[in-house]
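Section 3.1: Structural characterization of target chains.
Under the original work plan, the team committed to producing a structural model for every single-chain target entering the pipeline before any wet-lab resources were allocated. The record below documents one such target. The sequence was received from the expression subgroup and is listed exactly as submitted; it comprises 198 residues.
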Amino acid sequence: MGRDQRADLDTNWAAWLSFMAHHVAAGDTQTFGAIRCCSVGVPIPLFNQAFVFEEPAVDDLISAVGWLSQRDVPFWVTTPESVASAVGEMTEAAGLVFSGGTLPGMTLAPLGDLPVGATGAADTQLVADPTLLSDVAIVTAEAFGAPLEAAQMLVPASMLDDERSSWFITHVDGEPAACGQLLLTDDVAGVYSIAVRE
């Protein structure tokens, strides 16, 4: 039987948001039974989620929703298809509206060595200098339509000292143009916060 790449993706995604909540000043995490809640504290639901990867007790879902609501940020309850119908039946009791929407998730088997080609005017580098985080925030704010202040909160310098994560920034003709974040969990590498300015 093959590896469950969807489960790997879910685990890495929840770990990414927990990582973000750990490093961002307004961040916090809580667990309610099988529900892992992570909130970075910015007004973007992607950064405030309750992860429900197995069928929860309704009281745990109510507690998780209550905790996220008290943080006064928009949030999502994220669940795989395998338990979506069970969670959907609990939404009214938890004060939620079930959207049934899906988010894209991509997984790849290990690629091995990839050839590196010429990049032209684009210069991509690992962010090791904290001053480059302001460029990451500029790209993030513009690409996601977020306030610059919120984007700045998402890139504290403490992340640069955490070996689980790396930020990358691309400059085109000297201007910040794209960014991305890598997060490692066990042998899974998740790529997040991919943003490109127009």
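The first strand starts at residue 28 and ends at 32.
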